[in-house]
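thought: user wants a sequence for this fold. calling inverse folding tool.
action: design(structure=
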């Protein structure tokens, strides 16, 4: 994805007009943006097609250490530049969709909960901030929820009624999408797949603050690194800087790395099996950087799932996500379009 320049567009775009959304994906390391055009069967514009278009994707660093107020201000400044770009190119922007880290309240626009990955993010009033720079409708959902909406509607989950979406990257998140609608739960935290209990995680510090044993601190990209380094200390090996190095060493046949990948993926698969037993999904979509760890990871994940899932649940396929980094942007666009349609 192209870095966004404060001075102007990162990439030229053509004239538009299919009911575009300016979408943002706020994460711990970067804020991504793009212009999303969703299919519209009733549109007179023949070029809308049947699949979403995501154009002019670019990003700025989150710089989380500068605090939540700074993130909010740079986000709205970023949005102002994107809207100016759209006007210059003749685009018709009908709404702003936001996929936000933490737990956002979609009704009020307030971040009601966030981990220490984004200090000062909790309590930020995002709708109020956007009201100062635009009168367009703004709608915000959680970033993993947006990812799930994107994959359920236009990615690997399309055509399925109940989709369990799991994102395995720096952290682990999830979303439950039922007939195209995101299920958020009573407190907005449904789908927090990384905080499902796992014995493998006991003693490792989770982003939520517990050491009692969650799956995220041993199965995310960061978790692979921490699990490897913890075992590395006992075996006097060479520590790694990130999870990709664990995957690379496993691909090269290093026994320690192979064991870490297998144990981590199997434990995650067992957790997904438990989630499947509770939700009974039609399909389970697994996305994120860690899924690129290769067949060793996938085989262990599926083995753990089959060991944990009830017989009928095992028929739900575990498939890799198709939309990549565009999924949260597409999902945010889906959410704001639905919000606008509902008035």
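)
observation: tool returned 343 residues.
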């Amino acid at each position: 994805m192209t870095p966004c320049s404060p001075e102007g567009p990162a990439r030229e775009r053509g004239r538009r007009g299919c009911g575009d959304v300016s979408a943002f994906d706020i994460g711990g390391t970067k804020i991504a943006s793009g212009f999303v055009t969703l299919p519209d069967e009733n549109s007179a514009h023949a070029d809308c097609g049947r699949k979403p278009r995501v154009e002019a994707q670019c990003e700025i660093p989150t710089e989380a250490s500068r605090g939540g107020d700074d993130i909010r201000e740079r986000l709205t400044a970023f949005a102002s530049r994107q809207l100016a770009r759209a006007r210059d190119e003749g685009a018709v922007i009908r709404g702003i969709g936001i996929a936000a880290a933490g737990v956002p309240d979609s009704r009020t626009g307030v971040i009601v909960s966030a981990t220490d990955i984004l200090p000062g993010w909790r309590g930020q009033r995002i709708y109020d901030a956007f009201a100062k720079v635009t009168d367009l409708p703004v709608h915000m959902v959680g970033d993993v929820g947006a990812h799930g909406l994107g994959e359920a509607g236009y990615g690997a989950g399309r055509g399925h009624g109940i989709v369990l979406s799991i994102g395995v990257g720096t952290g682990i998140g999830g979303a439950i999408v039922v007939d195209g609608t995101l299920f958020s739960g009573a407190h907005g935290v449904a789908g927090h797949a990384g905080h499902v209990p796992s014995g493998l995680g006991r003693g490792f510090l989770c982003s939520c603050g517990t050491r009692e044993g969650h799956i995220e601190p041993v199965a995310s990209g960061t978790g692979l690194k921490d699990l490897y380094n913890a075992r590395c200390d006992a075996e006097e090996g060479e520590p790694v800087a990130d999870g990709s190095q664990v995957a690379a060493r496993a691909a090269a046949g290093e026994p320690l790395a192979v064991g870490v990948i297998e144990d981590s993926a199997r434990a995650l698969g067992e957790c997904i099996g438990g989630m499947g037993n509770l939700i009974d999904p039609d399909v389970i979509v697994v996305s994120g950087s860690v899924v690129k760890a290769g067949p060793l990871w996938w085989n262990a994940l599926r083995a753990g799932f089959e060991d944990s899932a009830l017989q009928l649940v095992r028929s739900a396929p575990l498939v890799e996500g198709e939309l990549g980094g565009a999924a949260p942007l597409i999902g945010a666009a889906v959410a704001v379009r639905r919000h606008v349609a509902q008035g």
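thought: summarizing for user.
answer: Here is the designed sequence. Confidence is low (pLDDT under 50) at residues 6-19, 43-49.
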